[in-house]
Write a structure and sequence with these properties.
The protein has a single domain (2-161), classed as Rossmann fold (3-Layer(aba) Sandwich), CATH 3.40.50. Helices cover 39% and strands 13% of the residues. The protein contains 6 helices and 6 strands. It has helices at residues 13-26, 56-65, 75-84, 104-112, 124-134, 151-161; strands spanning 2-5, 31-34, 49-51, 68-71, 88-90, 118-120. A 6-stranded parallel β-sheet has the order 3-2-1-4-5-6, with helices on both faces. α4 (104-112) links the parallel β5 (88-90) and β6 (118-120). The longest helix has 14 residues, at 13-26. The protein starts with a strand and ends in a 5-residue tail after the last helix. Residues 59-113 form the Glycosyl transferase family 28 C-terminal domain. It comes from Halovulum marinum. InterPro entries: Glyco_trans_28_C.
Length: 166
Amino acid sequence: MIFLTLGTQLPFDRLVRAVDEWCHARGRDDVFGQIAEPGDAGYRPRHFDWVAHLPPADYGARFAAARLIVAHAGMGSIITAMELGKPIVLMPRRADLAEHRNDHQLATARRFADRPGIHVVPDAAALARTLDRLSDRTGPAPHAVSPFADPRLIEALRSLIRPPRG
């Protein structure tokens, strides 16, 4: 399954429409989306199953079961994908398109773009190409990262906070 997640605060019509069009063009029926409430004028996908919101346990189960994640450039989605070793395709929301209040998602995407398993796309055409390349890929998943800091970092910080007595 490919899991599309947009967070819970704002709809993201540009990404939802791009995934919906990709599903239609490729005859895909293996996409599920948690897309926030699209509102009266928002885009409602016709070619994949979706809900506005998932309870946390269901969200976690969908995320864990997915072989590929498609998301906005939200830190929750990025960190969860990294912790679970899931490849993720990010399309950042853009302020100039009234998708967000500022461009922090562009900055976030730039910061993570060089990480293994993280694929950043600027638009629908790049998303389609990336989904074509990754959607049926088999092979090793990105290496999962620990949700905890490296013990050496913790010890270095501890020594700064509590210098040795002597």
